[in-house]
Amino acid sequence: MCGIVGYIGKDVEKTLVKKLKKLEYRGYDSAGIAVKNSDGFSVFKAKGEIKNLETKIKITPGAKLGIGHTRWATHGKPDEVNAHPHVSSDGKWVLVHNGIIENYAELKAELIKSGASFYSQTDSETVANLLQFYDCSDNLQTLIDAVSAVKGSYALAVMKKDDDKIYFAKNRSPLFIAVNGNETVIASDVVCFSGFANEYYVIEDGEAGFVSGGKLTVKNGFGTVTKTPVKLDCTESDEENGYEHFMLKEIFETKSVIKNVLEYYSIPENYKKLSQIDTVLYDKIVFVGCGTAYHACLFGAKFLSDKLGVNCFTFVASEFRYSDFKIDDRTLIFLVSQSGETADTLAALELAKKNGAKSVAVVNVEYSTLAKNADVAVPIKAGTEIAVASTKAYCAQITVLYAVAEILGAAHGKKAVSLKDIKEFIKIFDFGQIQLYRQIADVLRYQRRIFMIGRGSDYYSANEASLKIKETCYINSDTYYAGELKHGFLALIDETTYVVVFATEKRVLSKVLCNAEEARSRGAKLILFTCFDGIERDFTEKCEFVVKIKETGNGLQAVANIVPWQLIAYYTSVNKGINPDKPRNLAKSVTVE
Question: Which residues are catalytic?
Answer without folding.
Answer: 2, 588
